[in-house]
Amino acid sequence: MTNTQISAGRARSASAPPAVSVRPPARERGTRLLTALFLTPTIVGIVVFTVVPIVGSIVLSFFDWNVIDPPSFAGGANYREIASDSTVLVSFRNTLVFMVLAVALQLVIALSLALTLNGRMPGWLRSVFRSAFFFPLVLSAASISVVMKYLFNQDFGVVNWLIGLFGIAPVPWLTSEHGAMATVIIVYVWQQFGFSFLLFVGGLNNIPKEIHEAAALDGATGPRKHLAITLPLLSPTLLVASVVGIINALQVFEQPYVLTDGGPGDSTRTVVMVIYERAFEQLRFGEASAVGVLLFVLIMAVTAVQFRLSRRFVHYQ
Amino acid sequence: MSQATPTLGSVRYRLAPWARIAGLTVCALLTLGPVIWTVSTSLRTPAESFDLPPRIIPAHPSTAAYRGVFDQIDVWLLALNSTLVTALVAAGQMVTAGLAGYAFARLDFRFKRPLFGLVLATMMVPLQVTIVPVFLVLKSMGLTDTLLGLIVPAFPTAFGTFLMRQYFLGMPKDLGEAAMLDGAGPWRIFRSVYAPLATPGLAIVGVLAFNYHWNEFFRPLILETSGQNYTLPLGLVSLQGNLGTGSVSVVLAGVVLSMLPAVAVFLVGQRPLREGITSAGVNR
After folding, report:
1. How far is C-alpha A307 from the chain's CA centre?
2. Would strands A72-73 and A63-64 be described as parallel, antiparallel, or unpaired?
3. Which of A132, B65, B170, B196 could cysteine-pair with B28, CB 3.0–4.6 Å?
């Protein structure tokens, strides 16, 4: 402490006489030190907890490792194994089916609500609706799935009672294969649609009023106006909402874990559930890493395809 | 809007507001329904838990379920763990993102572009893909099954750094230049000129961190193996597992308790939360 003070003092007094010429380098050194201090936590953290682990995942995926014995090089064995492992294959199929249905549903609901909310209504009512629609986003997916498990119970759940009012027979939501997938999708979309909804509300606010007025003068109203004018102008937001929606959907975990535990059978087992089970229940770290690497490749590929497609369909103002 | 031209279409459209509001009301009820049911069922006696139609106002209001939660799980411990993790992560992210965001926006240094590119690239990497090596890194540090193991890896935030960089870039450059002419060093320029202006941005980072980590389930599930380190979501899921379907009101009382802080943040910090969620999407 005193040492640094003394040396700092000495440095200052040494540089004092020719103040004009020496001052900039001293300041520059200070800036460099400050820069290093400012960047270190983030850069070191990202390297240690993201960059190294990505490389680690790829390396581990070529090894056999159960934590207890030392890892042994396995070549492509893990990949060959999971390519013929029906649970892994089914989990990828489930995840893709889930992704397509959940994201489509999420976008349609969010967009319809945002468009409906965009119409004329008192300001306070608009903000009440807006708050209601994004409220589920602040809840824990795990806890809410606990609640939903009761609501979707076949015999005494509120959902079957509600659809019973419309004359629909009780659905075995959690105990049949299609019912379980439907439940996972519904619970996921229930919580997530508010995210796309907020994006669409923001996107709609960015469309200049004059364009709507011009369209109205030309006689475009209602659905036709939306198709011809609103949607093209909203396409950048649609792209973002679908990209983020897809990336998130491919990582679905809490809902199937709590609601169905992947069942019945493997009908709602998702890729992330398989990563979790392989690594932390069965201690097959190499295989878990290989599945993780494939998921990463899948996410990258889907995103790349989307941006490629978007070049043709997205209209920037 | 469409009222400008009295065509058949616009007449139909003029009738719409009531239908529109009715439709939105139904959707809002469906959205809030599960939450309302949770609160009201937690206040009913177990015998009335599954009454159909569900009684929104309990016939015999009872707080027995809340006492039951405190008897059956250590709510205080779970809440303390959750609070510690969430508060420290939120504070840590505000610090790391504020500092790094400022460096990327206002300081000049070598490799600035590639370093920022690295930060941006890691936003694309899902947590689940890196979880196995992260677990092993934490294990080698002796941090598995500790709260620190949840906290420390969550300090760096690529998105928060990006957000704070945008915030600092949006501030006028002459403020710093004027302070420099007055003899302020780089630290003082940051501390006294720019940092105070960054509060709204930091609020977004903090609120987003709170929302995410208060509700987080995947990492605690993997890292925390002994009950004393459980966070609320983990405790609640295991509460349901242990009790089966018998004491639904007790489980729901636990869910309600764990929701309260999130609801409070929702009410107080709705604007930064909304801005954060929207920009999280727009900037990807």
Report:
1. 17
2. antiparallel
3. A132
Q: B126 vs chain A: nearest CA distance in angstroms?
A: 8
At B74 the pLDDT is: 84
pLDDT tens, position by position, B235-248: 888 877 655 545 78
Q: What is the predicted pLDDT for the residue at B125?
A: 86
Q: C-alpha distances in angstroms, A248 versus A36, A117, A233?
A: 34, 25, 25
Question: Contact B262/A139 with Cβ under 8 angstroms?
Answer: yes
Q: Is B212 on the interface with A (CB under 8 A)?
A: no
Closest chain A residue to B29, measured at CA: A132
DSSP for residue B46? G
CA distance B13 to B22: 15
Q: Which of residues 232-291 of A touch B (CB under 8 A)?
A: 240-241, 243-244, 247, 250-251, 253-254, 258, 272, 275-276, 279-280, 285, 288-289
Burial of B261 (0-12, 13-18, 19+ CB in 10 A): middle
Residue A50 confidence class, pLDDT cut points 50, 70, 90: very high
Task: Give the start-to-end residue ranges of the domains of chain B.
Answer: 2-62, 72-282
Q: Do A31 and B186 touch (CB under 8 A)?
A: yes
Are residues B24 and A116, on separate chains, in Cβ contact within 8 Å?
Answer: yes
Q: Is A288 exposed, middle or buried (0-12, 13-18, 19+ CB in 10 A)?
A: buried
H helix runs in B141-269, sequence order: 147-151, 158-169, 173-181, 186-188, 199-215, 218-223, 232-243, 248-268
Domains of chain A: 2-60 (no CATH), 79-313 (1.10.3720.10)
Chain length of chain B: 284
Eight-state DSSP code of residue A72: E
Q: For B268, phi and psi rounded to 5 degrees?
A: -85, -40
Chain B interface test: which of A37, A38, A165, A270 (most B C-beta within 10 Å): A38
Nearest to B106 by CA among B160, B165, B156: B165
How does pLDDT run across A179-230, given as a tens digit for each residue?
999 999 999 999 999 999 999 998 888 887 777 777 777 776 666 667 777 8
How close A216 comes to chain B (CA, Å)? 5
Q: What is the ipTM of this complex?
A: 0.87
SS3 state of residue A73: strand
Place of tokens 């000129």: B193
- The hierarchical CATH code for the domain B72-282 is 1.10.3720.10
| Predicted pLDDT of residue B8 | 42
- pLDDT tens figures, A232-260: 888 888 888 898 899 999 999 999 999 99
Rounded distance between C-alpha atoms, residue B174 and residue B188, angstroms? 15
